Each structure stands twice: as C-alpha cells, then as structure tokens.
What does this fold into?
Amino acid sequence: MSSQARSVRLAYTATSILVIGFIVLPLVFIVWMSFFSNKILSFPPEGYTLDWYRRAWEMSDFRNGFFLSLRTSLIATVVALSLGLPASFALVRGRFRGRETINTILMSPMIVPGIVGGSALFVFFLEVEFLTGWRIAGSSIGLIIAHSLIALPWMIRLVTTSLISVPPSVEEAARSLGAGPLTVFFRVTLPVIRAGVIAGSLFAFVNSFIDLEKSIFLVGPDSTTLQIALINYLEWNFDSTIGAVATVQIGLITLLLLITDRYAKLSRAF
Amino acid sequence: MSTTETFSVSRPPGGAPKGTPRRLGTPMLATPAIIFVAIGLLAPLALMLRNSLNHYDPTELMVSAITPENYLKFFGDSFYQGVLWRTVWISGLSTAICLLAGVPVAYFLARHVGDLAKRMLLILILVPLLIGNAVRTSAWMLILNDKGVLAAFLGLFGHNGPLGLMYSSAGVVIGLISVLLPFMIITLNSVFESIDRNLEDAGESLGASHLTIMRRIVLPLALPGILSGSVLCFILSMNAYATPVLIGGPTFHMMAPTVYQQIAKVMNWPFGAALAFILMAVTLILTVGVSVLVQRRYRKWSE
It folds into this structure.
C-alpha cells in the first residue's frame, strides 16, 4: 500500500468514526444518565443508582404507555400481516394491469408525511363521530387503525422482497401434483419466505412502536402511547427518569433489530 | 426488482402454458389491503383537501364553502411565510451537511471495510434511526442543554457560560442531521457498492489522485443516488416534528408543528388543511425542481 493510499484510508476511517460517533454517542450518554444518582442533572455524576428505573415504573403515564404501545403495536403487526401477506402475493405473483398503481397505493402510508396523515385521520375520525356518534379519535381503535397503516407498508416491502426470490415454478410444481392453493401456500411458499415474514413483522412492530407523528393526534386522556408520554414529560421536565425509559426502549428495539438482522439484511429495508 | 426479471427471462416465452392451474397471484388478494389504505389514508386526505376550501368561523369552527381564503391567508401573512421559509432553509442546510458527512462514511463502508464489520457498522447506524424520535431527541437535549454533556465537556477546556444551543436553529439543525444521516449513508452506500471498482483502479493507475477520482469518476456515477438520498433527507426534514418542538422550543416555528397546532389545538381545520397541502406542494416542487436542474447539469457534465 502506497503512503498516499494509506493516508486516504486514514482520512476515511477518521471521518467515519467521527460521523458514526455523532450518530451513536447521544444514545450512549442517555443510557449512562439513567444511572446517575444526582437529583439535579450534572456532569460528571456524584454516584450511581437504579432508582430512576423504579421511579419510571411508578409513573403511571410511562407504565401504562409502555403496555398500551406494546399492545397497539402487536395488534397492528397482526393486522399488517393479515392484510399484507395476501397483498404481497398479488404484487409479486400477479400479472395484471395496474400492479404498479396498487404498489404505490399500498406504499403511500410510508410516503405521506406522518403529521399530514395523522391530521387527516384525526379530522376524518371526528367527522365520522359527528355523523354517527361513534368516538374513534382518542380510543384504542383509532390508535390501532393508525398504527396498522404505519406497519402495513413495511410488512409488504419486506415480504415482497423475499417472495421475489422464490421462483413461481416451485408453487406450480406443487399445484400440478394436485395440491390446492392453500396447501401450496402453507406447505410450500410460507416455509420458504419465513425469514421475510419474520423480518417484516419485526420491522412493522418497531416502526409502529416508535411512531410519534400519527399517534399524537389520536391519543386520549387514558390512552397515551409511550412516545407521547415521553414528549409530554419532556415538555416540562428533564431528569434521569427520561434516561431510564429511553434505556428500556433502546434495549428493546436494539434486541428486535438484532433479531431482524438475522433474517434479513437491515439496510435492505430502506 | 431485478430478480423478477431474471425469473421471467428464464421462463419459456409466452408465460405459463394454457391449462396450468391459476397461480396464487390475483389482484383480489390485494383488495383488503387497498380498502384499508383507502379508508385510512386516501379518504381522509381527500376530505382534508376539501376542508382546506372551507370557511373557518371561531364559534362554529368549520363552515362548508368553496373559498381560497385559507391559501390566501397563508400567502398574505408574513408570519406563516416566515415559518415556511425557516422550514425550507433549515431542511436545505441539514440536507447539505448530511451529504457532506454522508459521502465519506458511505464510501468508507463500501470500499474500506470487510463484510462482517460493515454489517455491524450498518446496525450501529440504523439502531439510532429506529429508536424513535422521542428518545433520540431527548438524547440530544441531554447533550445540547446548557448544563448538559457538551457544556461539561467544554468546561474541561475552560469554556464557561451558556452554550445557547437549546432553542436555537443551530440546535435544531444538529438534531435533524442525526436523524437524517443514517438515511443518507444507507442510500449512498448501496450506490457506491454498485459502482465498478475497476474504474477507480484504472483512474489510479493512470496517475489520478484520490480527489480527482472521486470528483471525475465516483461522484458523477453516484449522482442518481446522491440525488435520491438528498431528496429523502429534504422531505423528512421538511416534515420534522419532534426535533423543532423539543429542541427548538415553543417559539421556534416550523411547518409540521404549525399544522399540528392549527388542527389539534386551535381546531382551525380549514387553515390547518391548507397548511398541510402547501407543505406537501412546496416540498414536491422543490425536490422535483432541484432534481431536474441537477440532471440537466449532469448531462452537460457527462458529455
């Protein structure tokens, strides 16, 4: 390696360390902060404690928000799976006109900005309420609809990617041997695209769990997701309770993403 | 989608012979998903477009009408134009910084690291992206705060006094860059990887310096990716909500928080709807405009 090549390489390495550090370090600091024993935040800390985790757990906004987010995202993932799996088949296996249009429609919840989609949904729900008296905004149904919309495109994107790599001839062979469409799906196709379905579900779950922009319109007094509880708290307070909640979320999502990465390369999802 | 093409090429011409059972893929299978998106997104958007033409009355809230007054209000009010202008320049600046910082990292990942290290680094870049805006923004509040990490660190070097980064445009730009950089890096990385390495080696063997190779070979070839990465970053930052609200504070106005304010707090749905469509239209016009300009220039460049 020439000395010029070496210095070029060094420059790239140094820049990359700086930039990746810029992306990652804030999270490292917030995890660190969750263990500080100081009542008033200061650096360096006076000592360490686990007390903030207890306090975060005792705050009903955070505890209930966590369970509501968990439940909403789980249901949204199931909805996205049951709508997205058949739709992925239509998109990949289908040979019909307008397939591109259908793809664009199904991806549109990802393309339309969260605040725009959220406000449109909020006004829509309230107008439905004026007409029928059925209260959706502020209820868990409204949240589930919004979160399923967030989850659906991610599910379809990852499932179609994995379905494309399965040659239709495999399914045709099973059909020609007399298997019905459902048998083909459950016994032939699903086992092959299992990794894509798992990755799609995890990704759908994570993206629903962290949503802020759509949920902010739809939460009610007794149905506040974790993300909304966090920013409500942040508006008036900043202490290590935030660090404790953030650390739990960082741990959960990192774990889910590491599992996802075993099934499908994460960077392909974007 | 290249894999589909491979398969369709390897299949006998004319597709499956007649008489074979129908394949699983019928448009019917997509119907439930389409209905769901139509009800959950397309109908609400259509309703919002209609609402943007309604009249707002402080006591009756929304009165049905067909009037351009909400759009005219926006263009007649220097406050809201200021909000739009701030949103545009903050987004442009954040996108430019992301491009400058993203190119070396994406190129480093494509050319200078092994497979395993690359996979690990990509996860390291993606985890902060998928950690959620609330947690990531709170982490930046911890850093930028006058009594935060950065102030303590600078204190070691004798810098005292407030940093003034919280509730400032600089703080918002820093917060936005940290959201957008992962998108930029991943988009650019896949483009750099698709460029034939031999072209760079050829340039080098003919005596070109690394900067010349980047400027004359790699970046022109990567232009479509540079463009799509920048467009993505620009769109995301035009619509950013959490960063301007939490780091910018209550007096720092950008478009997405203003849409939220008008629709959920003031309950002025017609004006809020008009703001949302102005935001989407301006984003679309700017991204398409810049793309066309850059591509036209690029055509001259490559001739």
In short: Chain A touches chain B through 108 residues (CB under 8 Å).
